[in-house]
Write a structure and sequence with these properties.
The chain is an all-alpha fold and 132 residues long. The chain has six helices and no strands.
């Protein structure tokens, strides 16, 4: 983090918004991902995550907000509207989780993704319950 401050690339979580962080993550951390893998991330961020959380500051993002968002995605389908399946909501959460866990920890997202399977901490997908 010290080198990021020296370089001027450090973004303080209290000032950075989720939409800005998602843009940074897509541009900086997904350069080695194949286009067919990256495309669903682009679509999910553009259609779901940025409209719902783009204005929220990273420091203010919490699990209650994410849970309400995911429940709303699935609930609308259960009520007869064009909602998403529970599996689609889980995929959206997975993309969002990988992006935001790296912003909260200050680690390189590649390192965080490698270690996620080993360390089942409080920010794992299991903590978010998708309504079925």
């Amino acid at each position: 983090m010290t080198s990021e401050i020296d370089e001027g690339s450090y973004l303080e979580p209290s000032k950075c918004r989720v939409g800005k962080w998602l843009d940074i993550r897509l541009n900086e951390y997904t350069e080695n991902i194949k286009p067919f893998t990256k495309y669903p991330h682009l679509v999910t961020i553009k259609n779901h995550l940025k409209p719902a959380f783009g204005y929220v500051r990273l420091s203010e993002l919490n699990t209650v907000m994410v849970q309400a968002f995911l429940n709303n995605l699935v609930r609308s389908k259960a009520e007869g509207a064009r909602g998403l399946s529970p599996n689609a909501a889980i995929n959206i959460h997975s993309i969002f989780h990988r992006a935001t866990i790296s912003s909260q920890s200050g680690d390189d997202p590649k390192t965080v993704q490698k270690n996620q399977g080993k360390n089942k901490g409080p920010t794992t997908i299991a903590k978010i319950r998708i309504l079925k």
